[in-house]
Structure formats: C-alpha cells, structure tokens
Specification:
Number of helices: 9
Distance between the termini: 52 Å
Helix content: over 70%
CATH class of the largest domain: Mainly Alpha
Number of domains: 2
Strand content: under 5%
CATH architecture of the largest domain: Orthogonal Bundle
C-alpha cells in the first residue's frame, strides 16, 4: 500500500506536468490528482521538487533502457538498423513532447539543486556513451573524438527538439517539423 501511494503521487505529478510547469503546480493539486491526503505526500516527499526528481529518475531509467535496447538492435549501416533507429527517434521525441515544460523545469531545478544537476550530468554522460557505442557500430571508420561530438549534438537535438517559442498551425505542420528533426539526427548518424 505504501509503495502504491508513492507511485500514485509520482504518476499524478506526471499527469499534471503534461500541461503545466512544476512551479505552477501545488502539493495540494498533486495529492488531489493522486487521491491521497497531503499528509501522505509528506510521508514520502518533502517538496514538489522531490517528487519531480523521482519522476525524472524514472524517466531517465526508462530512457537509458530504451537506448540500450536500440543499441542491441543496431548491427551496422544497413536498412534494418536505419529503420530501428528512426523508430526509436520518433518514439523518443513523442515521449519527450508529452511534457512541454520538462526541459525548462529540469534546467530550473538543476540551477537550484546541485544534487539534481549531478543527476542530470550522470544521465547525459550515460546516454552519450551509449550513443557513441551506436555510432561506432554505424560509422566504424570514424574518429572517436568526432563520435563524441556527434553524440553530444544528437543528445542536445533530442532533448531540445520541442519548439519553445513557436507553435504549430496544425498537426500536419507539427509532423513535418518532427520529420525534419529526425532527418537531421539520422543524417548525422548514418550519412556522414
């Protein structure tokens, strides 16, 4: 039961964050969404930033696992690997776009909280290492330093793919935008 309440609070925060920033959400709103009392919240977390950190940790673990699955699927510069790579990018960008405020919330919290900043750095280093491994399989003749630079660029393109200061006229324009992001990342990986 205790684990269930903690998970309810994390999932409620996730739902609320799909349309709002962590700074605009209150602890009371999180507990109401989770269907638990405010007292239950404080049994697990000291602040809404703590529950946000737990949510981010689970997102990071999910992202690392998905990237490792992709790494296992990539066998070289071939059609099957290209398809798996594009599928991963589209799925990852879709997941990232579920929460429009995620990147700004992460940036804000990483500036205020050194431990959270270190968590972000560790996650990025892990993701970049896996991307380098994938690029090594795809671009066997590339220099290691070039692969690290490309991996960092790919990671930043994925993390910052959502257009913060512009909007889409319709779903078709949004889809065309996403296709261009995927194409740029794909070209960096397969066509260099």
């Amino acid at each position: 039961m205790a684990k269930d309440n903690k998970e309810k609070l994390i999932q409620a925060t996730d739902r609320l964050l799909r349309d709002r920033s962590i700074s605009s959400i209150t602890t009371k709103e999180i507990t109401k969404e989770a269907g638990v009392s405010v007292g239950v919240f404080y049994n697990y977390f000291t602040s809404k930033e703590d529950v946000f950190t737990e949510l981010i940790k689970s997102f990071f673990n999910y992202s690392l696992e998905e990237m490792k699955k992709l790494q296992a699927e990539i066998t070289g510069k071939n059609l099957r690997s290209e398809i798996k790579f594009k599928e991963y990018l589209i799925k990852g960008i879709d997941k990232d776009w579920e929460n429009r405020f995620l990147n700004s919330d992460i940036l804000t919290l990483s500036r205020k909280d050194q431990a959270f900043n270190e968590l972000m750095m560790d996650f990025n280093e892990g993701m970049i290492a896996i991307i380098v491994d994938i690029l090594t399989i795809i671009q066997a003749d590339a220099q290691d330093n070039d692969l690290v630079i490309k991996a960092k660029l790919i990671m930043n393109l994925i993390q910052n793919s959502y257009p913060v200061f512009s909007s889409f006229e319709d779903d078709q324009e949004q889809e065309a935008y996403m296709e261009q992001v995927v194409k740029i990342i794909f070209d960096l990986s397969f066509n260099e």
